[in-house]
Amino acid sequence: MTTEEQIRQALEGILVPGVMRSLPKMNLVRKIAISNQNVNISLASTALGSDAQQFVKGKVSEVIKKLPEVNEVAVDFVEAKPEEVNDIHYVVAVMSGKGGVGKSLVAALLGVELARQGNEVGILDADITGPSVPKMFGLSGVRPSGSESGILPVLSRSGIEIMSINLMLPHEDDAVIWRGPLMSKAIMQFWEEVLWGKLDYIIVDLPPGTGDAPLTVMQVVPLSGVVIVFSPQELAAMVVRKAIKMTQKMNVPILGGVENMSYLILPDSGKKLEIFGQSKAEEMTEASGRPLLAQIPIDPQLARLCDEGNIERYNSDILKTFIDNFLQAL
Ligand SMILES: Nc1ncnc2c1ncn2[C@@H]1O[C@H](COP(=O)(O)OP(=O)(O)OP(=O)(O)O)[C@@H](O)[C@H]1O
Ligand SMILES: [Mg+2]
Predict the structure, then answer these.
(1) Which three-class secondary structure state does DSSP give residue 118?
(2) How many Å lie between the centroid of ligand 2 and the Cα of residue 294?
(3) pLDDT at residue 234 above 70?
């Protein structure tokens, strides 16, 4: 007789239209009951319009009927909010004191390497006025689908779920000119109304500073921790102290820091050039009492891959060490 486990396995082969992750991965399988060779399956209808529901229902019946000793298959849908369905292990935010130090890059790389190591990963772009995650992943012209009951994230080429205001705008160059409360509302929607499904990690890319958006994220999202990005240019200690104050107030641990644009390796001599001055890593670790997770050099290849939307192609030992340190700090 077919077991529940076999049914779940068969359901792994059915992709949710619009996001192309399986029913179990989107955590839409609510109940499986087997009696006298009859199988009843309850699915959450979250973020599925009626066409998508019909499609999924047909596929499920077709696939489950093929299993040994299955007679009848009944599929029904139950309503559930995305929040009730989402099952996310760790949520980590990437923050910094100032703009342009490479937060989005660090958030993207963190997501890319975690996914490469076999984790299920999502990236929530909480930068509403300067969203840059979709561009790094080459997702222009792609739009999230969904229904009244929820929004489906967009899937990157390597299978990372991505949600960003840029995916919603009529043109990706449109400017979002919103005040704090509206931005906070958009961030809340990305957390509460997006069907993320089952994920090991969500990485949140924050806008610079300690303003409304980081505050909203810390209030609304149950963060496992924060990664602070800084460059040798910055008054690192001051930036880190500000971040520490904010995270302490909000009761969120700092996992560690990443120094970006730390140095440049000269291609001819292999010499290490500290373009923006001496490393501020020691200052950062002293001020926060937390470890340095990575020092990322200025790398023309990185800049090119970001511009081309090919960030998922980046691979390096520095990135592997970063993830090792990150996992240890978590
Ligand atoms: N280590 C690096 N090597 C080469 N280019 C880099 C590096 N870090 C960042 N860049 C480039 O610098 C630009 C800014 O990086 P990024 O968007 O990640 O910064 P940010 O801190 O998120 O900025 P914002 O404050 O606007 O959100 C990007 O176009 C990226 O390609
Ligand atoms: Mg950014």
Answers:
(1) coil
(2) 18
(3) no
Q: Taking CA 60 as the corner, what is the angle to CA 56 and CA 63, rounded to the nearest 5 degrees?
A: 135
Q: Would you say 276 and 297 are in contact if contact means Cβ atoms under 8 Å apart?
A: no
C-alpha torsion sign, points 229, 230, 236, 239: negative
pTM exceeds 0.70: yes
Ligand 1, atom 12, lies closest to the CA of: 102
Closest atom of ligand 1 to 229 CA is: 21
The domain in which residue 67 lies consists of 4-80
276 in the same domain as 241: yes
Q: Residue 235: is its pLDDT beyond 70?
A: no
pLDDT digits (tens, 9 = 90+) for 259-280: 999 999 998 898 998 888 888 8
pLDDT tens readout for residues 291-322: 999 999 999 999 999 999 999 999 999 999 99
- What total number of domains does the chain contain? 2
Q: Whose CA is nearest to atom 15 of ligand 1?
A: 102
- 246 and 318 belong to one structural domain: yes
